[in-house]
Known about the structure:
Elements (H helix, E strand, L loop, with lengths): L20 H12 L7 E3 L1 H8 L3 H13 L3 E6 L2 E6 L1 H18 L5 E9 L4 H7 L1 H11 L8 E4 L3 H11 L4 E3 L2 E2 L4 E2 L2 E8 L2 E8 L8 E5 L4 H4 L7 E7 L2
Antiparallel strand pairs: 1-3, 2-3, 4-5, 4-12, 5-11, 6-9, 7-8, 9-10, 9-12, 10-11
Bound molecules: flavin mononucleotide.
Amino acid sequence: MTPQNEASNNYWTIKLADIDPELWFTLLHLARLGTLRKGIHVSTSNLAKELGLSQQTASRRILELEARGYIKRSVGRRGQTIVMTEKGAQQLMAVYAILHNSLSNALKSIILTGEVFTGLGEGAYYVSLEGYRSQIIEKLGFDPYPGTLNLRLTDPPDLYFRELLSHRPGILIKGFSNGRRTYGSVKAFKAKIEGIDAAVLLIERTHYGHDTIEVIAPINLRQALKIRNGDKVSVEVQLI
Ligand SMILES: Cc1cc2nc3c(=O)[nH]c(=O)nc-3n(C[C@H](O)[C@H](O)[C@H](O)COP(=O)(O)O)c2cc1C
């Protein structure tokens, strides 16, 4: 993706058009059975009854969900056990986020809690690039400390809310090119972490999954808050 075709700042999210409604409802039912948390014994005939389908159609859907990587299935003597994958959960969360955004425009901020971990230290390099730094100063109102605080979200409510951010416009830090290579865009949200002004970044080109957020601030947050790897930290994220 080049900076030229970055008109939409939502391209790293799942859109409604990417969702197959029939499979989605099957996933929803599997979630209700508890497959988001652990492997659950699922009877195809019960599933068929719940969804008002023939048994053949229900088992076809299960196979299709497995083929798409939305569920993992193991078949034993007592039937099949199903657990939902992160990819499957993302399908559910995408619709949750769209619905949530449509129903609750009044929501002004959310709290995300995650576990601190150290990455490769690449965040510091990117934040210091003039192409990003000048936009952060202009659009977020502070000169960022060179480094990002990585938070891994583990609890489902935080993961859902993280998904919600994907569907908000946020503050767009545009990608750019320095002649040698291109840099991707970043969607930023103003935030507060223990009273300190900060911003949560959703980075287009990152090796982290949707369970990770990166936080920047004018100061070294690790030092200021005396936080270490494994600590849980909460960030209040402004949605507008
Ligand atoms: C503002 C910003 C812009 C970034 N842009 C890119 C990018 O264009 N390409 C890329 O491969 N990674 C980009 N990254 C992501 C980093 O590669 C990486 O995912 C992340 O910052 C890892 O930081 P850590 O190693 O400190 O955990 C960017 C990171 C930040 C903070």
